[in-house]
Amino acid sequence: MSQSILVKPDTKVLLADYDPDDHGKYDDKDEARGQTERYVERLAELQEVLWAEGKHALLVVFQALDAGGKDGVVEKVMHGVNPQGCYVASFKVPTPEELAHDYLWRVHKVTPRKGTIGIFNRSHYEDVLVVRVHNLVPESVWKPRYDEINDFEKTLADSGATILKFFLHISKEEQKQRFQDRLADPKKNWKFSAGDVEERKYWDDYMRAYEDALSKCSTPWAPWYVVPSNHKWYRDLVVSRTIVETLEKLDMHFPPPLPDADKIVIPD
Ligand code: AMP
Ligand code: MG
Question: Separation of 134 CA from ligand 2 center, angstroms?
Fold first, then answer.
């Protein structure tokens, strides 16, 4: 029996308990893809109301190891939404200017405004993941960050942001397969970097760092979901379904109709 993908606040996550191969009740890729397409269409409708109402913002965070599927899920799940109301922020190695500020500075600047959807391809969690695994700052610096991140996300939530965080969980074997696929196909070579092989050596350290981030930072206002991601079609289904179900709960409405709309005459 696999775990519920939602991490309950204040529970200790062991990633070994989550099966990255899980595909729920779907055995058939086509069936799952068809269902995902329906969620993608519904998401487009919901985004229009989100935009028109201008009351809520949606922040979707994606984290994963290399080849975990962050780019893929953004394409597959978000391709239906109006680009005008959506923004993707990718977080890379911090620039000197970013490093001269606190670690949340570059993040806070690109959080979504009301009426829009913000997608984070990597995020402030890198500051307790890669930073911790490679000792880029001492433990005394990264350790307080879990609480700081929870406070930061609470501030966003209190100002109208709905936050969803997805960890795309693949197995170590699946990562190897995806690296090999990238090397075998000249059109995919660009996705491969030598650094990825180097990072793979730290797999177990990353697992521990992820377990802590998931355990300490899944809150009622910004929950973490562990998404089984060995099957891309199941990953996309789970993420699209979770986003749609979350937006449905916001009970959003178009602004009320203009009272005199029928009396307004547009001059020739
Ligand atoms: P990619 O997403 O493959 O383009 O790679 C981005 C790289 O930036 C990854 O290797 C991340 O680990 C790295 N990165 C992102 N945020 C940070 C950070 N705060 N500190 C150090 N490295 C980071
Ligand atoms: Mg990479």
Answer: 16
What are the residues facing 90 on neighbouring strands?
Answer: 121
Residue 1 has pLDDT above 80, yes or no: no
Cβ-contact 253, 53 below 8 angstroms: yes
How far apart (Å, rounded) are the C-alpha atoms in residues 127 and 104? 9
**Distance in angstroms (rounded) separating the CA atoms of residues 71 and 151:** 28
| 91 C-beta closer than 6 A to ligand 1 | yes
**Cα distances (angstroms) measured from residue 48 to each of 77, 116, 132, 145, 242:** 16, 9, 39, 35, 18
| pLDDT tens per residue, range 30-77 | 999 999 999 999 999 999 999 999 999 999 999 999 999 999 999 999
Query: What's the gap in Å between 93 CA and the centre of ligand 1?
Result: 4
Enumerate the H helices of the chain as residue ranges: 29-53, 70-78, 96-99, 105-108, 130-133, 139-142, 145-158, 172-184, 194-200, 203-216, 232-249
- With the most atoms of ligand 1 within 8 angstroms of its CB, the residue from 88, 91, 92, 145 to mutate is 92
Per-residue DSSP letter, 256: P
What pLDDT, on a 0 to 100 scale, did the predictor assign at position 80? 95
Question: Model-level pTM greater than 0.70?
Answer: yes
Of the candidates 143, 120, 268, 150, the one whose C-alpha atom is nearest the C-alpha of residue 218 is: 150
The pLDDT of residue 209 is above 50: yes
